[in-house]
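From the shared-data thread, chain only:
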Amino acid sequence: MTEPPALDLTGCKILVTDDVPANLDVLFQALHGEGYNVHVASDGATALEVAAHSGPDLILLDVMMPGMDGYETCRRLKADRELKAIPVIFLTARDDLEGTVEGFGAGGEDYVTKPFKKEEVLARIRTHLERTLYARQLHELNEHLEQKVDERTRDLQLKVAELEGKDRIAQHLLTVHTLEETLGLVLQVLSDVLLVERAVVYLDTDGVLQAVADIGFDAVGAGQAVETDIAERIRKTMAPVRITDPESAMIPITGQGELLGIVQVFPRSTGQPLSDEDLHTLSSFSLQAAVAIRDSQMRQDPDTWKDQLAEVLEIEHEIEETGASRE
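Structure, as tokens:
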């Protein structure tokens, strides 16, 4: 089994609390010499204030102090949500079972009896600092892994939603539908499958992107147009554009390199804006939607059918001429 890397404890903050100045001086010198960042307090009340301000990594706490003793000080530390995780090592002249039990009952992690030996104090400090820091690293790693799992799960959910949406459009293409029916399906898929709260479809009419269908609104004025600067930006880039007021995104509906329209989507009221992955999924779906929209437009407009047929016949004629010239 691989051993975890040795921790560099230099700079770790240690709060030493003792009402005897000589003890404070000895501990300060010993700990400072090991590279620790040392804070001192001479009573329990001061220790609580210093701990709240500096957030030490470990506390050395004398038991016998005037006023608030070490046990009560520890109880108050452990009752504080921000401070309760800090390990406490008691400094005590009591070497009896009753004192030890009371110390652990107050929330202390360890104790050192006086007169203490420098090597023992340093060893116990290092043990508890390492345990605390390893636990902190493990917690951060678990949070990171959970975040990665959540991200991967969301990616898969988006892909499934995208495929389901495309499949519904593909099934729709198997039969003849009006443009209104097709737009209704596109909006319904956005709402049901891709979890968009509201959406508006704008189609190109003589160079102007005008609203023709919506979902989730009481009413969207027919003929309402996309702002000129946004429309030009989308025509130029053929890429989604984020809108801040109101929070939404404009997704281009493109077919054969041509901008057929735009669908403006509004995220659900979760406080989370549309992510890049959301926009990618919506853009991919819009390509399939464009096929259905273009098909409905062609069926709706006989002149379009004639133009398409003429293009096909012209291409077929060019192919025949090319074949004849080679013979």
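The mean pLDDT is 83.
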